[in-house]
Amino acid sequence: MARRPETGSKDIYIIAAIALVIVAALIFFLLRIVGHAEKHVDTVKKTKVKYSESLSWRPDSAISEDKIKADFKNSRNQTAADYGDLNLTKNSFVLISKMPMLRDLKLVRASFKEKWLNILADMNLRYLALHGTPITDKSIPILLKMKNLESVELGDTEITDKGLEELSASKTINHLEINLGRKITNKGIESLDKMTQLKVLEFSGSKNITAAGLAALADLKNLEQLSIKYLKVGSEDLDALKQFKKLTLLDASECSLDDRALQGIAEVKSLNILNINGSNITDDGIEKLYGLKNLTILSMKDCPNVSRKAVKNLKKGLPGCHVYHSRRSGLAKKLEQDNVRMELLLLKDEARNELEKKE
Fold first, then answer.
1. CA-closest candidate to residue 64, choices 92, 40, 29
2. Is the pLDDT at 48 greater than 50, yes or no?
3. Which of 7, 91, 200, 299 could disulfide-pair with 324, CB 3.0 to 4.6 Å?
4. What gap in Å lies between CA 265 and CA 269, rounded to an integer?
């Protein structure tokens, strides 16, 4: 009798060989990545650049300046410009200052010397985004010189409470973003009470700020939009929201709100948009929202204790509102949200501090 070929065994050997090749390839690429990382560290050690800053990719300063030169030549009268993530030179700022029609300028995560910002002081800018740039309180007097400045982004910078207190003297800024304020506390937030013209205020993800600071902002009668994502919110902290009679948008996502916190939100009858994703609210709690007849958008994603039935009833009670709801995924249920939430947002800050200590 002829012997049948052992094809099954051969297939197993072939699959095993392919698997070994794939694993070997992965190891090879991982070693290359590690090698590049070690080479990068050695290169950075030979310079005066902080390692944390070197991790952010930025074009060569000559390339950055060429881009601005091209804009200056071809679009000198542009009203908006975005030079974020660029390595700017002093001449870059000189060229920008000579764009007479420029009103909106984004320099998010750009690299430059803080003193060069003074070159822009006499411009008629309305919007200036400095999020993630190397500015400190020394830049505040420069911003105050910009008489037409209405909107400014100062998040993820070295601005402190002292800087915010100085900035509160502005009578033109009505939109202030200070998300991820590393050196800002409730004291700095409380000083903003003088800026009665404020319409938009964002201070999400700042580890030294809590929602308790809202109580001190009673004079912000013109406030229309407020973002306090990722802040520590006590059950009664949001009772202070009722003082904002013109508030139309509130983003209190990932604040682990409970049913008692919704009682404070329910007092803000002017709300059109409400984001409370990542909350610990229940079916009983959302019943408090039935009185918000002006709501057009309600987002309750990642709210595991709210049932589909309660959401269905809420939609009937607020027929003009688009309700977005989802329960926590199986993976998310296994994670402790409070343990990872701020770590993700402030990872850059913590890494910078540790690396600076080693230097």
1. 92
2. no
3. 299
4. 9
